[in-house]
Write a structure and sequence with these properties.
alpha+beta; five-stranded mixed beta barrel
């Protein structure tokens, strides 16, 4: 193996290690380009050809992967982190009176939640969850809730 081959091998390893350490897809294109230049160094002693192979393969890999990753990122929905969205549409009972503009507490499906409402709801009133914002449920009186 020539000196150029060793350089490309070392660069490929460095880029792979950097990628593994960050998991942020910052050097994977260069690792692929380095591997291609490594192969090119076996067939030619010209550093210029090897650098061109590295640059072209890195650019093509970047050009192929970025649009694919952007498309995949756009297809993902944010994860439900606390189950509050699962409570929407369910009925519960007010544990701590809810006044407009203030936070009270409700119990829905055996779990206690912070809750807010447009109208005052007294302790013990039946309620229905109409929305969730993080861990705060928006409720309305069960009698007036549209199901």
């Amino acid at each position: 193996m020539g000196m150029d081959t060793w350089i490309w091998l070392i660069l490929a390893v460095v880029f792979v290690v950097a990628e593994a350490a960050t998991t942020a897809l910052i050097s994977v294109w260069f690792a692929v380009g380095s591997a291609a230049a490594l192969v090119a160094s076996i067939f030619t002693d010209s550093p210029a050809v090897q650098v061109v192979v590295f640059a072209l393969v890195s650019a093509v890999t970047l050009g192929i992967m970025v649009p694919t990753l952007v498309k995949r990122r756009g297809n993902r929905k944010p994860p439900v982190t606390n189950g509050s969205q699962l409570a929407v549409g369910k009925r519960g009972v007010v544990l701590k009176a809810i006044l407009p503009g203030e936070i009270g507490r409700v119990r829905v499906d055996g779990l206690d939640w912070q809750a807010k409402a447009a109208d005052a709801l007294p302790e013990g009133a039946r309620c229905q969850v109409v929305a969730a914002d993080g861990a705060v449920l928006t409720v309305t009186a069960a009698e007036t809730a549209n199901v």
